[in-house]
Amino acid sequence: MAEAPSPASRTVLTALALAQFICSFAGSNMNVMITDISEDLDTTVQGVQTAITVFLLVMAALMIPGGKLTDRYGRKRCFMAGLLVYAVGALLSAAAPGLGVLILGNSILEGIGTALLIPPPSTS
User: Fold this and answer.
1) What is the CA 118 to chain-centroid distance, rounded?
2) Nearest Cα to Cα of residue 95 among 83, 106, 84
């Protein structure tokens, strides 16, 4: 019979699972309220779609370099840095007065944070 995981293992697993959920959710959360966001920020639906597309491009472009960073600096350090960058981006997105700040927060910072949170496994 297998032993039950320790509380520390459960805490780590919970943190990783929540980060994975947030990162998978980040790619689609703005699609739900695209019209409302465009009205709130006094921009077009195409502008918000651009922010979503740039997020996905930044995340995809930085996943391989993110994996290399985790090999070099350690997974925990990069995970914590990714959480911090993502959190700053989320706060900036939430307080965005216009499309430019939304793109900076959501597309750039959250994209970088996501790339650090879910890097591909090391192949070297």
Assistant:
1) 9
2) 106
Helix (H) or strand (E) segment spanning residue 85:
helix 75-94
- Spatial separation of the C-alpha atoms in residues 34 and 23, rounded to whole Å: 19
Nearest C-alpha neighbor of 90 from the set 69, 57, 112, 122:
112
Residue with tokens 């591909």: 120
Q: What is the separation of C-alpha 37 from the centre of its chain, rounded to a whole number of angstroms?
A: 19
For the entire predicted model, the pTM comes to: 0.86
Query: Tens digit of pLDDT for each residue in 35-88?
Result: 999 999 999 999 999 999 999 999 999 998 998 998 899 988 999 999 999 999
Gap between the Cα atoms of 94 and 117, Å rounded: 20
